[in-house]
Write a structure and sequence with these properties.
By secondary structure, the protein is mainly α. It has five helices and two strands; from the N terminus they run H-H-H-E-E-H-H.
């Protein structure tokens, strides 16, 4: 739906570019202009996320679609959950991730290989490495 997206972008850009739009307190500085636009889109994104969450819940309440677990229980794949003349709701379930239960694994190895648990704990720690740190970006209004 290019028309809807185009209208949203037009409205958002009008907030920044129009004299009647939102007044940027840092409009005289290039840094202030960029940070203001980042902040504007960040806040629009938060509002959109909240609205989207609320509307998904409403769609379930009104019986338009089923609860998320219903689709997860169908297993991996795609399902059309609902349709209108102009829109379709596509539910896409991925294959569940496998995870390793450290305690269960070390206990099983200790029992099967007859290795002392403290030695296995030490080996586990020596083989463990840190993953990539997550990064959060946010513009704050001061």
């Amino acid at each position: 739906m290019g028309i809807v997206r185009d209208k949203i972008l037009e409205t958002a850009h009008a907030l920044v570019d129009s004299p009647a739009g939102v007044r940027n307190p840092d409009r005289r500085s290039n840094v202030g202009r960029v940070l203001f636009e980042l902040y504007l889109w960040q806040e629009l994104g938060k509002e959109a996320e909240d609205q989207l969450k609320s509307l998904w819940a409403k769609a379930v309440e009104e019986g338009l679609i089923k609860e998320d677990d219903h689709y997860r229980n169908l297993g991996p794949g795609e399902t059309i959950a609902g349709e209108s003349d102009s829109f379709s709701v596509l539910m896409k379930v991925s294959k569940a991730r496998k995870s390793l239960d450290k305690e269960a694994f070390l206990s099983a190895v200790a029992k099967k290989a007859k290795i002392a648990r403290p030695a296995l704990d030490e080996l586990w720690e020596s083989c463990s490495k840190e993953g990539r740190a997550s990064l959060s970006k946010r513009v704050l209004e001061v």
